[in-house]
């Protein structure tokens, strides 16, 4: 089983007169906590029987549908509606907002879909619970599709999603949206991305680089996305312990996020020129694998001493950053599941943001707050730059010091970004360790809404 087909059919339907099961469409009343009195008066006996209390996130059945109470301060947070994906009974539902801003509708649609999402290798079963959408819901549905695509890619087991399959899925997703796509492989890949090629050399599954391009109009500002797509990371000769290897199918989460952002940007029709580069490789152990102490040449001409083969993500990204910088984009963003140090500092829910431009960082962080999809800015502290020095090469890929690992990884990447180029690096976990409303256990596209919202701001 080599190819996994995504079942992108979503739990939504355009307005029917009668539900899919032949019964009347049900109403989902989403009510601000301060506006529940009228409904409580109309359905007092029903609500009393359910011991209903008018508090945020409380759910109750009504004769013609259901009631869900919302904290107005959280009304535009999709996760506030994540529980609806499992609470609603089978049937087709229409949304009725009471006391909530109209913008909350998009959050409801996205939150419901985030909570309804499930992954299984055999595909998704048909949804029996659906929300009726309107033409104006297209932007929210674009984010739903991007979220599900990214989650699907991260969740696929590594034996079913190697570098070739990841590249093919990316090509299909981008081409279907009108983007032009080049798949770089073989001798061409080794010549153009020698450092990346060295990471993939240890695997029998060949590396691929995806280069996608899309343009809203001639002259639109160029946004360039770069994603780390390590489909499985053994650590190489610096082998990971079993516990550290267990979730390494998610080490392509940066590529999944970059692709999801690209798809959302295209579907939303944002006024940009877009380039996306995904480095699709596998970090394995073999007679062809890179070794600790090897010196690798990069696309930039700089040389790197491999101090640790498990710090392979930055070796994948550096060649892609060099190429992306050649076009001098308005913004250059790379995304990667890069360091455990970022998780020690910020935990699983907060991607670390490193940026060489304060305005860029501020726009992204503010977008994260607006879309309830936060990041946390970390410092590019150049006092640690010398820690990457090597006696025999231009730099090392790791430091000998057991501190500031996320910062030194970002400093390594910055060496491949020209001065004056606005750039940010996002170090993400790409995973939910447990299930929460709107965030089922498994792959996650953390920062997707924040990045898309930030790009929309600069169009």
Automatic annotation (TrEMBL):
UniProt keyword Hydrolase present: yes
InterPro entries, alphabetized: Leucine_aapep/pepB (IPR011356), Macro_dom-like (IPR043472), Peptidase_M17_C (IPR000819)
Keyword Hydrolase: yes
Superkingdom classification of source: Bacteria
Positions of the Cytosol aminopeptidase domain: 308-315
A GO CC term assigned to this protein in UniProt: cytoplasm
A Pfam family the protein falls into: Peptidase_M17
Gene Ontology biological-process entries: proteolysis
Gene Ontology MF annotations: manganese ion binding; metalloaminopeptidase activity
Keywords per UniProt: Aminopeptidase, Hydrolase, Manganese, Protease
Similarity annotation: Belongs to the peptidase M17 family.
Protein name in UniProt: Leucyl aminopeptidase family protein
Species, as recorded: Neokomagataea tanensis
